[in-house]
What we know:
It is a single chain. This protein is mainly alpha-helical. It has helices at about 1-10, 20-50, 55-70, 75-80, 85-90, 95-120, 120-140, 150-165, 170-195, 200-220, 230-250, 255-270, 285-310, 320-345, 355-370.
Amino acid sequence: MATKNKIKNLLFLFFPQKGYTATPTVVLINVFYYVAIFLFSVVLMINLSLKTGSASYDDYIEEIRRISLNFGVNQRNLVLGGEYWRLITYQFIHGSKSHLFFNMYALIYLGLMIENKLGWKKYLFIYLVSGICGGLVSLIFHQEGVMMGASGAIMGLYGAFIALLITKSFEPKATKALLASTLIVSLLVLINGAFGKRVDNAAHIGGFVSGFIFTYLLNYKWDKTVEIKSWARYAVSVLLFLMFFSGVLHFSPKYGTEEYRKLRDTFNRNMGALNSIMNLKISLPKDVKLTSIKQDGIIPMERNLVVIKQMQALNLKSEDAKEREEKIKLSKASHRAVMLMYRDIKADSAYRYSKQTSNALAQVFEILYKPD
């Protein structure tokens, strides 16, 4: 009987009850989304293996990244490019079973504590808007990579809990102990986020602050003689949210960091081809030398000129823009050097390059090995 009651009490946490409606619904959506993504990923991984025969580790990672993007993770350039729906969907995506478990554990605890105080409408509004605000703050601090998880929204509920405690929504005897414990837990989460790897602390802070503010706006009674209508509180909250939302989108530049890094890798691979022509043997026939310079010098350097044009079209952070300028100089210098090498060999300069060619090669090495 005792075991049956324990199971019954556990199942209670996952089904809507009076005063506890939104929390189990959100928990079940999170669990369903995780299972759906997992099963979908397994099917695609099997399909990839059957299709390619021997897919590499990088192929699997790229496929997982593509799946996560399709399901709606938060990604700076995609959101700034107009895919605002990601600011909601990313809240329901988790990277592992432990990620999901600990977030849902915290969500259930907070739901049991505050949903009945707020009512399911306010509770759900604060949860989702805190998650969106956390995602927006995350965009400000993360120019690349993807963000996922309910922790921003959950930190919003911690902020809401504190707002309810300081506005005396709980019994006076319980308030002091609950406030101290909630502040300690919130602080520990933020400290852990500051030092933990792969933790989106920007979303934690954004969610926490917004949860506190919106709960305060929706719940606090400034003047007991004047009742502020619920619609007016929501209107002010939505207006404030939209101001923050539009401000972040307007003042956050869309950087081409990921695209630039792909182009940079291509550029560096092309530059690596030069190694095979820098020490051509004098004894090699002239036509072999010319073919080598063309294949391993002229063609890769011409490709780099195209890569540079693609780089120049990107809006980059200052450090990447500085590096791009060096790549521009290197592309021009290396292209000029190989063209002069080809000219000298073609003109039967079998034993040494002209002074002009030597200077051009020296310029390439100077750029390559220039100290930072």
